[in-house]
């Protein structure tokens, strides 16, 4: 089993099942003791902002705010630099614990030894 899991989620409210799957897998991995780095890109970028996860609903799925809290408690959430810029999101807008970083950091994390990368 990989020691680290890097997950890139590209979907938000536009593809709720895919979005929920990414957050669920990340939260379960954190709970299992795996080092997790979740990357928010595309429409999932909005979940880096306070209150936005609470607006997300999907029947029979764990509440997104709970998943976000779980991931932040034991892992890392990163918002893509370009995605943030396109949406006018800055560091001061983010949930506590979320950072903004670019493709170089993503590639570095994804290519590290003992890492498994998933894209949703």
Which H/E pattern describes the elements?
A: EHEHEHEHE
Number of strands: 5
User: Structural class of the secondary elements?
Assistant: alpha/beta
Whole-Å distance between the termini?
Answer: 20 Å
Radius of gyration: 13 Å
> How do the strands line up in the largest sheet?
4-3-2-1-5
* Overall pLDDT: 97
- Figure out the total of helices: 4
Low-confidence stretches: none
Taken as a percent bin, the fraction of beta residues is 15-25%
Major sheet size, sense and barrel closure: 5 strands, parallel
Q: Identify the overall geometry.
A: globular
Q: Tell me roughly what share of residues is in helical segments.
A: 25-40%
What kind of assembly state do the chains in view correspond to?
Answer: single chain
Structure, explained:
This protein is an alpha/beta fold and 120 residues long. Helix content is 34%, strand content 22%. It is built from four helices and five strands, in the order E-H-E-H-E-H-E-H-E. It has a five-stranded parallel sheet with strand order 4-3-2-1-5. Helix 1 packs parallel to helix 2. The longest helix has 16 residues, at 16-31. The radius of gyration is 13 Å and the shape is globular. The two termini are 20 Å apart. 34% of the residues are buried.
List keywords for this structure.
22% strand, 120 residues, globular, alpha/beta, 34% helix, five-stranded parallel sheet
């Amino acid at each position: 089993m990989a020691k680290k899991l890097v997950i890139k989620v590209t979907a938000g409210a536009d593809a709720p099942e895919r979005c929920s799957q990414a957050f669920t897998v990340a939260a379960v991995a954190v709970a299992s003791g795996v080092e997790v780095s979740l990357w928010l890109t595309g429409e999932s970028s909005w979940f880096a902002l306070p209150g936005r996860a609470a607006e997300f609903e999907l029947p029979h799925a764990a509440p997104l705010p709970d998943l976000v809290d779980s991931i932040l408690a034991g892992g890392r959430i990163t918002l893509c630099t370009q995605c943030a810029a396109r949406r006018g999101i800055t560091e001061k807008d983010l949930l506590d614990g979320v950072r903004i970083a670019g493709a170089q950091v993503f590639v570095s994390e994804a290519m590290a030894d003992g890492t498994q990368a998933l894209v949703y």
